[in-house]
Request: fold
Amino acid sequence: MATKILLPIEHTDDQSWKKSLPVALEQAKFYGATLEVVSVIPEIVQLPNLPANYGAGAKDHVTGVLRSILDSNGAEGVAIHVEEGSVYREILKLAHKEGFDLIVMASAKGDFPNYEIGPNLARVVRNAHCSVTIVRA
Reply:
């Protein structure tokens, strides 16, 4: 039984949430679990030739996009995490640190027999401490 569900979303890719968000909401309702969303953005490296505040609004922008997606799809009030770094590493670190019981992720589009399992999804499935539900896009 799940008590905390994590849904990774790529804020620029509708396929990362169009089918997996309804599944995650249904699972949360079924189990009486909390649902939280995570999006991972590339790490912003401060180079000497860039201004000190370069990339300062990136997390706020992504949070706003995610809030809009969630609110317009019946997921108001869902907690949002925006992490910087490697996609699969940040998902796994957050899931372990916060004690998630279930990760719901969308796969890339593909047709039988070549369903697309990208490298981030494959690594999450192989290394997660909890169950992972894959939603076919």
Summary: Strands lie at 4-8, 34-41, 79-84, 102-106, 131-135.
